[in-house]
Design brief:
By secondary structure, this protein is α/β, with parallel strands linked by helices. The chain has a single domain, classed as P-loop containing nucleotide triphosphate hydrolases (Rossmann fold), CATH 3.40.50.300. The chain is built from 7 helices and 5 strands, in the order E-H-E-H-H-E-H-E-H-H-E-H.
């Protein structure tokens, strides 16, 4: 029996996964190749507020940031023919998970904690990685979020150590049959 590949009424692609998994990098290139408009949720929040995400975290805390993130996801998900790179914590909200699943094709860019640590061990920009043991924090985030990512995703792609072009080709083959 052949499997049925169901895509929602809209042809959007939503990229989820931990910080450093490659959502923005993959999303930009995939959008260019597929002729879709690319959005990064964090960059949209920064554009609208005029300040960096780290400043929002400082002033409003994670709760304030998550509210802004939910508003941006809700709004952008109503558009068509987009690729949206969500923030790593977007899946913490049940409402966000539903919006993503119901308005496009959700792809979980999965990366092992050690690979993420290698990519981000010198990153000074991410609010959740400030003044902490980065590897321990990534491990805790993975334990908390991995089940939510897998439950939300229509497709899981292991980013591992693959080149971006390989990831994009894998997504195109699975998503579009190309």
């Amino acid at each position: 029996m052949m499997g049925i590949f169901i895509v929602s009424k809209q042809n959007n692609i939503f990229l989820i996964g931990l910080m450093g998994a490659g959502k923005t990098t993959v999303g930009k290139q995939l959008a260019k190749q597929l002729g879709k408009t690319f959005y990064d949720a964090d960059h949209e929040i920064e554009k609208r507020t005029g300040v960096k995400v780290s400043v929002i975290f400082d002033l409003e805390g994670e709760v304030g940031f998550r509210k802004r993130e939910a508003d941006v996801i809700e709004e952008l998900a109503q558009l068509e023919n987009i690729i949206l790179a969500t923030g790593g914590g977007a899946v913490l909200s049940e409402a966000n998970r539903a919006v993503l699943k119901n308005n496009g094709h959700v792809i979980y860019l999965h990366a092992a904690v050690n690979d993420l640590w290698k990519r981000m061990r010198y990153d000074k920009q991410r609010p959740l990685l400030q003044n902490v043991d980065i590897q321990a924090k990534l491990e805790a985030l993975y334990i908390e979020r991995h089940p939510l990512y897998t439950a939300t995703a229509h497709l899981i792609v292991d980013t591992g150590r693959q080149p971006v072009t390989t990831l994009i080709n894998q997504i195109k083959k699975t998503y579009l049959g190309l």
